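ok so for the tutorial part 2 we go from a plain amino acid sequence to predicted structure tokens. step 1 is just haveing the sequence, like this:
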Amino acid sequence: MGKVCEICGKQVSSGNKVSHSNKKTRRTWKPNIQTMLAEIKGERKRINICTSCMKTGKIKKPVAVKSAEEVQ
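step 2 — the prediction. this is what the tokens look like for a chain of 72 residues:
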């Protein structure tokens, strides 16, 4: 599982950490990627999605299907 959002393509980015004395060392920023069950083109599928895409509602969650035992 890679750290890439399947909706917006957000992935790990890198840059410099700058100390008080202005020394620079390399660091990374990782996106908050979650595995989520989603409904895509009418079928249920597990996808990796960032939390900002979850909040904006870019993905539809599948409707829970009740079994025959739960109905009665």
